[in-house]
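Q: Sequence in, structure out?
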Amino acid sequence: MADLMVLFPLACGPWSYAVDRTSAETDQPNCFSSRILGKLPTAESQCQTREELPIHIIYIDIVGLTQFKRRVKAGYGKFSCLLRIVDSFGTEPAFNFEPYAKSRRLKTQWGMQNLNPQQFFTMFPHSPDNSFMGFVVEEHLNESESLTMMEKKDQAVVYGKAEYMWQGKEDYLAIIHKRLEVHGTVFTDPGGAHMSVVPQYIHNHGILSGPDLHRLLRQSKLFIGLGFPYEGPAPLEAIAHGCVFINPKFSPPHSSQNTKFFKGKPTMRKVTSQHPYVEEFVGEPHVYTVDIGDKDTLEQVIIHALNDINLNKVRPYMPYEFTKEGMLQRLNAYIEHQDFCTASLPQWPPTESVIVIAGELGKSCKDTCRQRDLICEPSYFKVINNRVTIEKHIGQLCADVVEGEDIYFPAFIPASQKCIIQRQLMLFSCVGEVADLSRLCPCRDYIPGQTALCKHCL
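A: Exactly. Output:
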């Protein structure tokens, strides 16, 4: 296990700190660019080894990385394998590897870092090519409040703090209002010239403190998604207080191809709902993912959800991976086992948790694994990237074997019985699909409630 972590925040703050190998003392709150970066040497000598560097692991974001590169200059190559990039929406291999991104016109201001994709740490486990860092869901209630289930009122809380999020949602909210008193926590400008889009029947509390918001959630039966913001912590907080989350479904899914918000982000991910994590890993009875434009289906979902709550079938629930203990367990495993500087370490996750599956035509490895309640494990692509393994799992011999550089390999083309081996290791990817290809996919199991870790990982 690394005996040291250095956290590089983007800005000044009370949680900013840096520690070097020669001292156990932590700096007072400081600024990123001056005091923390001042601890790092430039690589004045070409003979300087990584062991001479004063740090073992660097947590940083993309904007901070730009400052970091300017500071270390020629020494960046020695530091790059130590980096852990805090990256909310993830960076897919196609956007990360500079030559490929340029040739496919996938250049973005966040991409082309040429790192191991698992060095990107995401907010939710949506990109198996990256590492799921996550966060801890806030708890504001005192111990006595946490131990008792507050009586639920016939009310719902709408998820949307800004007025623009409410635009065009009148019919949707009216259906909720038919059965429940509807509350909001939206900021409205009392001196604004425009007419508020928040319906007059909404009991608007304005922006609440954490404890007050959590008490409101504990009293409420439904938490109502408006379709934006994407993938925030609030639905998990609501579910933890016994609310049912109404999760707007997107058809077609939102992506960089059709949604302005995702344009320029280093991912081609297709977002199927406002909160894909709770859709996929939590589900009913805590979450109902529904087309909010389908009034009949929406009404039935609301009736069903309220019936479950009234019959005491819905209890407060928190996925373990979003608790303090769950996050510490996950990060401890990463610190102990992830090493992007040394190629000769024992394989992790252990082989006992990994199986190889030949995917259906046109399926990504991410989807191939999820269909079997497994997770694509990108660190094993290099293990299965050979003719013998392909033939074993497709059940026939390769008529021809070629090498290629794309995000779909290793793979098999049934029409020509051709096997394709990945030539560029930076392009191993769980995502990506081509209609005439069967991808060879490494899939691992996972601990329920701790998707980042396999059953033999601890």
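Residues 6-132 form one domain.
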